[in-house]
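Sync notes, pocket subgroup
Present: LS, DG
LS reminded everyone that the earlier model was apo-only. Rerun requested with 6-O-phosphono-beta-D-fructofuranose included. Inputs:
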Amino acid sequence: MLGKKNKKKKRIAILTGGGDCPGLNMVIKTVSQYAMNHYGWEVIGVKNALNGLLNEIKFDGPDADLIEFNPTFSFNEYVRQGGTFLGSFRKLKTKRFKEANTDEQLVNVMLPLFKKHIKELNIDGLIATGGDGTMFMLNFLCERAKIPFVGIPKTIDNDTPGTEISVGFSSAVDACVNALDSIFWTAKGHRRAIVSQVMGRNTGHLAMHAGVASGADIILVPEIPYTLAGVIKKIKTIRSLEHRDYFMIVVAEGCGLEKGKALPKNATYTVAEYIAKALDKEKIEARADNFGYLQRGGIPNGYDRMLGVELAVLAVDMMAEGQTAVMAGMKDGKPVRVPLKSVCKKETRKLDLNSPIVKAAVKTGIYIGDLKKTK
Ligand code: F6P
């Protein structure tokens, strides 16, 4: 059972929302320990994202919805693990939430429960990790429940507006580079083109960074249209100039078909398979691979742990200063305060085509599509 609130102490809740990624456990640890030890607050960990606060709350047992942290709680094993020990969900679990079809209906069923539980649990503020969607929804609910909200960006796609980097991205780049380093030997040994598909529904940050870091020959991202003729031409150039007959191709899952055409909704193939098939037709032996969740799991690297600590400290400080509707972001390598209004109004943060990584890809002769055809 949750301990009775000490009336003199502030009590905050922390949760992790959206898709998991490495580094979240360091955020949970830092927010909790800094808030408890430095500010003397009480901290409640909410399990399974917003689900832990909306359904009938279970206080005890293995499937309890809340963890009441205290200064002796041991976070140390968790920070070395991937995922989030609080759990996360993209969707709300209960039937009544699933049946709410519009945002308005969803809010109508969620808001009364959210307000009720926030009041019953005496929560004075909420800190949460998430992408722009999660942060927008939580801020909306907090505003109406009259408690402050502070967000911390996380996503392996690195596409949250208002921050140059999100927790999880760097470890995901490492995971992709490791996988590409393994695949290289099969490509070389079998003299094949291997088309490796990495995550990135709308953006190509992960594909571009992992591709450049692993020495890929071709990198395809949603931001830049490409042609199959361009891909084939690049392969033929490598053959004639380097006398090399194995090729590394990295594609973002959202890069679509050639010339900016979208993958059909009911497609039974991936973009990597589409490209591999086109190469096979040209007598270039090709295989497709899809890295899937190995990119999102795994041990957080050093950078993501440091980032998690820096952003969590700023998030708690902002909460202490009474700020709300804000996100702790990164700009020029430093933690900065970002109004959520500016995060949620903007489109997904696309790969900057003038960024050093894109320029370097072009200058070193990697085929990345047709930059002139970008909008
Ligand atoms: O949001 C990050 C992301 O990794 C996307 O690139 C990918 O499309 C998606 O998650 C997959 O999410 P889910 O596990 O919910 O299907």
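DG: The pocket of 6-O-phosphono-beta-D-fructofuranose is lined by residues 19, 90, 155-157, 199-201, 253, 296 (CB under 6 Å).
LS: Residues 169-190 form the longest helix (22 residues).
Action: DG to write up.
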